[in-house]
Each structure stands twice: as structure tokens, then as C-alpha cells.
Amino acid sequence: MHRIHILCLICLWWFITSLTAAANETPHQVKALKITTLSTMLADSGIGEWGYAALVEVDGRKILFDTGNRPQTVLQNARDLRIDLSDVEDVILSHNHGDHTGGLETLRTELSKKNAKAMSRVHVGHGIFAKRAGRENRMHTMKLALEKQGVIFKQYSEAQEIYPGVWLTGNVERVHPEHNWSGNSKIEGKHGYIEDNIPEDMSLVINTKDGFVLIAGCGHAGIINTMEHTVKTIHPADITTAIGGFHLMNADDKHLAWTAGKLQQFGLKNMMGAHCTGINSLYVLRELMKSNRKQMVVGSVGDSFTLSEGVKAGYIAR
Fold this sequence. Notes:
It contains eight helices and 17 strands. By secondary structure, the chain is α/β, with parallel strands linked by helices. The longest helix is centred in the N-terminal third of the chain and has 24 residues. The protein is globular. It starts with a helix and ends in a 6-residue tail after the last strand. GO terms for molecular function: beta-lactamase activity; transferase activity; zinc ion binding. This is MBL fold metallo-hydrolase.
């Protein structure tokens, strides 16, 4: 009897441990999410520019994704939209280009007057500080200046969950030939300078009950490459919403048809294509995917997406 009792206790322990492990392996899903565009070309109010930035409010936390082009754009647009950015401590920079990083120093300087921790953690992809041929990498200079103010830079080469249900893709594997960069620049490699394909390009991925929400700055790694990387490195799930810039402005009809087919396979329902996505490209994708003007829209300053209401397009983009 004593042996049977011990065996029962062991079985009970194993059962409880298995349930606990299974619970811990369940991917966290965020409960509340709102994404508001603060920089892109179209604007109902505020300032339009060639750049991108979005405020991500997730489960009571604020994150700024990219910082626009001109130093004052995001700051002024937030004021016009009556959005307080002083409590934003985390900034994500999708890549090194000035139209996504131009507002960071001004935002840090102005907002730290109200909150010393404002814009104090900057998340970037590995390679953002690499030497580029023929020009200074302004990100390196900016990093040195901001670190003197106490700002911390965190680099990612692999997918990483930075908050429950909130992921960064890290460097994205370029499986498909989505050539979303100019090809005119060179970056320092192990054996000299090579073509700069913006290796640090990184997206934000948020896990919800309806699937992943993907936010990209320019999508230099390719929207399909990024989606495949997401489900491979984080966990398998539909990617139901894509927001930001996806560098499809120069895509021909064949590439757009291929992209539309892939997006449907991922279960995409909502798209706010801003910045370098291309207005005509967005319309072509919408037609190919048999979507509508409520779910697939051109991004504009002040537009938003929430889990409860979906896409809320700016007046000019409806």
C-alpha cells in the first residue's frame, strides 16, 4: 500500500507539472490595443511628411514605433491630436533611415522636461549602427549623444518578446526576392563593403485573440518575408492586421498579385498602408484580395486601429 501511495503522489505531481508547463507555453494575448499614426504623407490635421511614426498603446503601456522625419513633426502632431507622449519610455526604430529616426532627439529633449524617463529605452535591430560607405551613419552619432543623457539602446538580432504578447522580429531572413531597397548603398561586411539591404530592418508584432498585428516602418525585409519569419520564430498564427510602410510603391502587377495571394494565405483582413506602401499599390491589393475601403485603407496622420473597432481611417483616406 505504501508503494501505491507513493506512486499515486508521483502521478499527481507529474499531472500538475504538465498542466503548469502547458499553461506557461500558451502564448500571451494582449487584451487592449490601439495604434495611432503620427507621421506619414497624408494628414487630415497636423503635418504630413515623407516619414513614418505610430503610437502603440497596449495593455496600459505606450510604445512609440519610429519617430518621423522632421524633428518637430511627431511632437506637433501628437499635440494637435491631444496625445500625451511624455509617458512613453520605449521607442522602436525600424531601421536607420532619417525618415524614421529624425524626430528622436527632439522628442527626448522636449518630453524629458516633463518625465526624465521619456524616450529612455530605444529598441533597434542588429546592424543599425554599421558603417555605410560614402556617408556618416547618423545613428551612431545620435546614439552617443543620447547615451550621455541616460538613454539605453537595446539591439536585437533574433525575435524577442519585450512585454507580454509584444514581440520584435529582430533581423528577418530574406527568403523571397522582395527587393525592397534601392541597391545604391554599401554596408561594411566581414570582407569589405557589400550591398546595403538594410539588414537591421525590424517590425513589431503583437499577439491578440484574433491573430498577430504587424507594424512595419518600411518593410525593407519584405512584408511576406517578415510574416513568414514571424510565424516561424514566434509561433504559428494568422496575421490579420498589417499597419505601416511596406515599400510596395514600385511593385509591378505581377509582384502585387503574388503579394496578395500570400497575404490571403496568412489570413490578412485589415491593412493601413502608409508611407512607402504606395497609394495605387494599396488599391490594387484591395481589389485582388476582394476587400473593401473599411478594412484596407491608405494610412494618414490621426488614423487608428483598435481591437474593438478595427480600422478607423482618416477622413481623407476613407
